[in-house]
Amino acid sequence: MTHFRISDAAALIGVSDDTIRRWAADGLLESGRDAQGKKTVSGVSLAQRAIELAPDKTESGHRRSARNAFTGIVTAVQTEGLIAQVELQCGPNRVVSLMTAEALTDLGIEVGSQATAIVKATTVIIEAERNPEA
């Protein structure tokens, strides 16, 4: 079974180290210690907690077919002719979107505003480190 140190677990799901420690103390995450005596949480309990926290509806209450929605703050906007590029910082993730300049204006997007990037893709590539225990 995979275990993560507190800081790694926090980074994975976009919360603070203190939140992970609190969830472990409250029994919301299975915890233990690694060979060096550092506190860890189980990957299985962390995954379950991430699912519990993930919203299954938009703020308006509507469901959508795209499961990959990243809400964050707009950090950059560039417009050139008919095209606009919008950058969002969504927790530890940077998301970049291209759209028409008209759509940018219609949405009222500007640096500092909150926005949600909804990603619908036909190909998703997964990368993971090999588990030395496997």
UniProtKB/TrEMBL annotation:
The keyword Secreted does not apply. The keyword Transmembrane does not apply. GO terms for molecular function: DNA binding. GO terms for biological process: molybdate ion transport; regulation of DNA-templated transcription. Keywords: Molybdenum. Residues 63-128 form the Mop domain. It comes from the Bacteria. InterPro entries: DNA-bd_dom_put_sf (IPR009061), MerR-type_HTH_dom (IPR000551), Mo/tungstate-bd_C_term_dom (IPR008995), Mop_domain (IPR004606), Transp-assoc_OB_typ1 (IPR005116). Gene3D superfamilies: 1.10.1660.10, 2.40.50.100. It holds the Pfam family MerR. This is TOBE domain-containing protein. It comes from Leucobacter edaphi. The lineage of its organism: Bacteria, Bacillati, Actinomycetota, Actinomycetes, Micrococcales.
